[in-house]
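Worked example (supplementary).
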Amino acid sequence: MAHSHGHSHGYDPEHEHDEDHDELQHCIEECLNCHAVCTMTAQYCLTEGGEHADVNVIGVLLDCAEICQVSANFLLRGSPHHVVTCAACAELCRACEEACRAISGDERLIHCAEICAACAESCERMASGSGLSDAGEVEED
Amino acid sequence: MAHSHGHSHGYDPEHEHDEDHDELQHCIEECLNCHAVCTMTAQYCLTEGGEHADVNVIGVLLDCAEICQVSANFLLRGSPHHVVTCAACAELCRACEEACRAISGDERLIHCAEICAACAESCERMASGSGLSDAGEVEED
Amino acid sequence: MAHSHGHSHGYDPEHEHDEDHDELQHCIEECLNCHAVCTMTAQYCLTEGGEHADVNVIGVLLDCAEICQVSANFLLRGSPHHVVTCAACAELCRACEEACRAISGDERLIHCAEICAACAESCERMASGSGLSDAGEVEED
Amino acid sequence: MAHSHGHSHGYDPEHEHDEDHDELQHCIEECLNCHAVCTMTAQYCLTEGGEHADVNVIGVLLDCAEICQVSANFLLRGSPHHVVTCAACAELCRACEEACRAISGDERLIHCAEICAACAESCERMASGSGLSDAGEVEED
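After joint prediction of all chains, the assembly is encoded as:
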């Protein structure tokens, strides 16, 4: 029988030491990394000026940085509501990726877009619950 | 003809002075208020101990406080992505309301539940876009 | 004899209903207000462009907004360590006030400077402890 | 001749590639790590209950987690005001370390205390400016 996953029914800061835990740990790292890169990229864009400092570019970088931080915090607390914040985080990461790719020829923005894409993917997995339920399913019999 | 709403296409920290603006302003206040009440309630529960200090109660109060802060920040920035964070905020407010109501006979928790419910309602309106598009529709002809 | 003030020795989210409480409540409101105004002003400056969107102007507005939020949170939790964050907040508010005043002829920046000054003053009082100890002294005999 | 250090006069998200940069990068990592560990430890303590869930213990863990996050953000933005937040962060880390050590015989709290001590040390170096000016001095002639 599948073992019940603590974090699907309540706060579980210790998490379980299995595939779920790896997926969770990986997502925390992606979120923290994306938060850091978006924060630095926003400042870089302000320094560059011009189209880089457009309110829509800086705005989505700040939005993405902030929701990544929150998504990481929910995961760190082992919150059962992390699916909500991971889903929101994935959406913002996609929007930020798009905004970064819209300015062509800048390596730092391309790098930021790649980090956002990686975070979006990880958050989408967490939001769909696949990262948390697969291992349980596998162990079912 | 309907005027186009700045914040539906880009960041608009000034917002427009019409019904939309009132709805937006109201939602910011609900989010900031709910953030403050949940933060104080979490500390109150820790002081009380017992079932009040259960990890699930404190956990959802911290979750709700944090997402309310973020939701307010997206609205303050006039972010076009506020629908994402308002929707997430509404979900957490409902979860927090439920957790507060589950402990009976405590006036502070009943108060917190009511604040959460009011914030959830306002965020749901913003997330559905009804708070932002109605005025525009009305002015269409 | 002077009663001991809970928040000077430990976390006290309920606070006491006296002059201290009013000072504390006032400071929370100043911090939340300054956070909101700085956040909106940063977006406004990005929209304006030019000297308004200088990295040093946007930077200090983001810095000030963030520390104001944290200062409010420490006060809301009734943290005995609020003197540390209030002192830090006051310093950033002064720096932000100065940056806003350096760009002349813009009413929104003048407004932001005034809000920063008011928050700095309130935080300085909390940081020096004068806001918290006066009431206790008076009740001493 | 000593080169002028960008982040001592204005926001510099790119930072310079020398000893200063390493010190800065190291401090960001310590702050992010301490934020994560304190957040997880707070949830762990809530789960344990008893003296672990005392409002003063949870309170200082939440305080420390929050100021670490802010300190990291100031450093990531290359803010010239990072000395203010690093100093505040160092103080909270010391308070949190002490609170963790006061509960004896718990390996997770000992671990948290060690992380806090490491972060405090790094932040103290940044706050004193030694991490940022030494390299410049050395290169002066």
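Two points are worth noting when inspecting this output. Helices of chain A lie at 6-9, 19-48, 55-76, 82-102, 107-128, 130-138. Residues 1-8, 133-141 of chain A have pLDDT under 50 and may be disordered.
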